[in-house]
Design goal:
This protein has about 130 residues and is of the alpha/beta class. Helix content is about 20%, strand content about 25%. The chain has one domain: RutC-like (60s Ribosomal Protein L30, Chain: A, 2-Layer Sandwich), CATH 3.30.1330.40. The chain has 2 helices and 5 strands; from the N terminus they run βαβαβββ. The radius of gyration is 15 Å and the shape is globular. The chain starts with 9 loop residues before the first strand and ends in a 13-residue tail after the last strand.
Length: about 130
Amino acid sequence: MSGPRLGGPRRVARRGAPTLQVDTREQVLGRTAEMLGALLERNGLEPADIVSLLFTATDDVRSEFPAAAVRAAGIADVPMLCARELDVTGGSGIALCVRVMAHVYSERPRGELRHAYLRGARQLRSDLPE
């Protein structure tokens, strides 16, 4: 197995999450778009750098698919999947939360890449740089 490439873009994964105040279509679309925008901006990425997006949402988010926010932003050619977050006893306990794992191309070193945990979701990974 070879190590990471030393030059040019490589595939990396970045994480992000916003919380909602209420479960409405407008909140899911708005907060998901805000989080994706922050993720792209913090990492110097363009929509063309996105390989795929995997969204999860807590059981109390039912009004819209988070992927709909990406399509509404004009990014319709990226594979996306929406799933339920595991309801683990003793888990994070954060309600109304949408999470994403974004697979993207980037030339930045791993230590310069940033995540986008917004609003109440910041506590999920306060150890990661923003």
